[in-house]
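Look over this one:
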Amino acid sequence: MARAALANIISRVRVLVDDTASSVFTDDDVQAALDPRRDQARYWRPEMRMTIAPGGTSTQWLTFEANVGPWEDDVVLVNSRFTPITPDTADNYSGRWTFVAQPNIPVMVNGFVHDMYGAAADLLMIRSAKEAAAFDVKADGTELSRSQKSQAWEARANAYYAKARPRSSDLVRTDEQDAR
């Protein structure tokens, strides 16, 4: 069963892969595509947005914005004493949290963010592979073409791969010999 904290992200991925009515993929399938494209943030500092009091007499830091997202719904914000704090408004999808009174800064975020476009592209490639088994039929002057569905899913997947977050890894060469 898919994690409850992923429900909003799963529904948005379903829109990206056009799977809102037919349910080609289960919630577990969507979570399985999201999990490899998940990054953990531990004590990550979001950008502080200044709020100026009327008349310009004082400033406070009430809004905190992350430049990545979407965040799972179980994200936890902590203050400078590492005590969990609850924002008055939270938009986990865009990573924006607002307080009525200024918390002890810095505010830090603990949670998981997901690459929805990468996960959607992976799901569309799976869908394209399933459609690749379909075939075109010509009979009695009638032509029925199903192969374009696979091509359309793959083209959409490639467009989403272009929007996905870049991934990096460390490479180790094993073919070199020590020159000593």
